[in-house]
Amino acid sequence: MTSWLPTLITATPEEGYELAIKLSRVAVKATQPDADIRDRLRPEYAEDAEALIAVSHVVATHFATVAAANDYWRQTE
Amino acid sequence: MTSWLPTLITATPEEGYELAIKLSRVAVKATQPDADIRDRLRPEYAEDAEALIAVSHVVATHFATVAAANDYWRQTE
Amino acid sequence: MTSWLPTLITATPEEGYELAIKLSRVAVKATQPDADIRDRLRPEYAEDAEALIAVSHVVATHFATVAAANDYWRQTE
Amino acid sequence: MTSWLPTLITATPEEGYELAIKLSRVAVKATQPDADIRDRLRPEYAEDAEALIAVSHVVATHFATVAAANDYWRQTE
Amino acid sequence: MTSWLPTLITATPEEGYELAIKLSRVAVKATQPDADIRDRLRPEYAEDAEALIAVSHVVATHFATVAAANDYWRQTE
Amino acid sequence: MTSWLPTLITATPEEGYELAIKLSRVAVKATQPDADIRDRLRPEYAEDAEALIAVSHVVATHFATVAAANDYWRQTE
After folding, report:
1. Which of C14, C56, C59, C76 best tests the B interface by mutation, with the highest count of B CBs <10 A?
2. ipTM, two decimals
3. To the nearest whole number, what is the mean pLDDT of chain D?
C-alpha cells in the first residue's frame, strides 16, 4: 500500500505549499470520514470569509513545517 | 502500565501525522473525561465546518512538533 | 515556597504532555483568580466542542515548548 | 510555466512581508477557486475587524517562515 | 526612564511564565490605551470561558519565545 | 523611498515589541487600504475583549519572529 505522505521533501517551494494544503485537509477527513457530509459542508466554508481565513491559517502552520523540512529550499537557489 | 505516549519518534511521516491526531485528542479527553458527553458532542463538531478546521489547526501544531522530533524524517529519504 | 514550575524537563513525553496541560490552565487562573467563577465556567467549556478544541490548541502550543526543552526525549530512545 | 513561488528568499524584510501576504492569499484561492465568489466575500472580511485581525494572524505565521528562510535578513545589516 | 521589558532572561521558568503573561497584556494596553474602557471590558472576558482560553493561548505563544530565549532554563537543572 | 521595514534588528526587547505591534498592523492596512473604513472599525475592536485578545495573539506571533531575529537580545545582557 502506498502512503499518502511518503516524505515532507519537495522539489520546489510551490510543491511544498501544495503539500501543506494536503496536510490541512487530511485531518478534516480523519475527523469526518463520511465524504457525503464533507461535501455538504464544503459550501458552508468555501463561501464564508472567516472559514477561508481559518483554512489559510492551518495551511500556514503546515507550510512552516514543510519549509523547515526542506531547509527552506535554499539549496535550489 | 504502558504509556499512551512512549515516544515522539515514528518510522514514517504518515505515522507521525497519526500521532499528531492522537495528541490533539488526548487534551480533549483530559478536559472532558466523561466519554458519554464527548460522544454527545461529536456530531456537533464533526458536522460543523469551522470546528473541523479548528481540529485541523490543532493537528498542524502537533505535527510541527512531531516532525521536528523526527528531524523531518530526512534520514528515511 | 515551592514553585509550581521548577523545570520544563520531564522524564517522559507523557509527563511532558501533562505539564503542557498544567501550563495551559495556569494562565486561566492568573486571569480569573476566583475559583468559584472558574468552577461556574467549567461546564460552559467542558461541554462545548469548540471550547474543547481551543483548549487542545493551547495544550499543543505548550507541548511544542516542553518537547523542545526536552530535546524531544530523544535520549530516552 | 513560471511558478508563483519560485523561492522564499527575498532581498529585504519588506519584500518578505509582501511574500507572506501573498502566501496567505493563495490558500484562500485554492479553497475557493471561483473569483466571483471571492470578490463577493471581500467586503465581508475587509470591513469586519475580527476578520482583518485573523488575516493579520495568518500573515504573521507566514512571515515567521519567510523570515527564518532568509535568516532574518541579518546579512543585509 | 526604565523599560517595562529590559530583558527576556529570567531566573526561573516560573518567572518566565509571569513575563509571558505580562507580554500578552501589554499589546492589549497598546491597542486600547484607555484604562477605564479596559476595566469595563475585564468582567466581559474574565467570566467568559472562550475568552479565558484565548488569553491562555496568547500566553502560550509568548511563553514559547521566553523559554527559547532562556534556553529552556536547562542550565538551572 | 524609505522602507517601513528596513530591518528586524532592534536595540532592545521593548523596541522589538513595538516592531511586532507595527508588523501586526501593516497586514490590516494591506487588506483594508481605506483609512476611513479602518477608523470606523477601530472602536469595534478596541472596545471588544475578544478582538483585543486576538490582536495580542498576532503581536505574540510577530514578537516570536523579531525575538529570534535578535537572538533574544542575549548580547545586551
Report:
1. C56
2. 0.97
3. 95
CB contact at 8 A, D65 and A73: no
Please indicate, yes or no, if residue B55 is contained in any of the structural domains: yes
Task: Indicate contact of B with F: 3+ CB pairs under 8 A.
Answer: no
Q: Does A67 touch chain D (CB under 8 A)?
A: yes
C-alpha dihedral, A53 to A55 to A56 to A62, nearest 10°: 150
Q: Which of F3, F9, F51 sits opposite D49 (nearest CB)?
A: F51
Helices (H), chain C: 13-31, 35-46, 49-69
Which of helix, strand or coil describes residue D33?
coil
Does the CB of D42 have a partner CB in chain F at under 8 Å?
A: no
pLDDT in tens, C37-53: 999 999 889 999 999 99
Examine residue E66 and state whether it is found in any structural domain, yes or no: yes
Record: contact A45-B47, CB cut-off 8 A:
no
Residues C8, E67: C-beta atoms closer than 8 Å: yes
CA–CA dist D17, C36 (Å, integer): 45
Chain E nearest-CA residue for F14: E5
- The predicted-structure confidence for D42-75, as pLDDT tens digits, reads as follows 988 999 999 999 999 999 999 999 999 999 999 8
Indicate whether D1 pLDDT > 80.
Answer: no
Report how many domains make up chain E.
1
- Domain of F66 in residue numbering reads as 13-70
In the numeric block, which cell numbers belong to residue E56? 491562555
Mark yes or no for CB contact A63/D58 under 8 Å.
Answer: no
- Picking from B25, B57, B71 by the largest number of A CB atoms within 10 A of its own CB, the best residue to mutate is B57
Q: Identify the CA nearest to D31 among candidates F28, A24, B55, F27.
A: A24
- Does D28 score more than 60 pLDDT? yes
pLDDT at F44: 86
Q: Please, are residues F29 and F38 in contact by the beta-carbon 8 Å criterion?
A: yes
Give one word for C73, left, alpha or beta, with left for phi > 0 and alpha for psi -120 to 50: left
Q: Which stretches of B1-77 are DSSP H helices?
A: 13-31, 35-46, 49-69
Q: Which residues in chain D are closer than 8 Å to F58, comparing Cβ atoms?
A: 53, 56-57, 60
Report how many Cβ contacts below 8 Å link chain D to chain F: 95
In a domain, F39, yes or no: yes
D55 domain-assigned? yes
- Put simply, the answer to whether F13 touches E30 (Cβ < 8 Å) is no
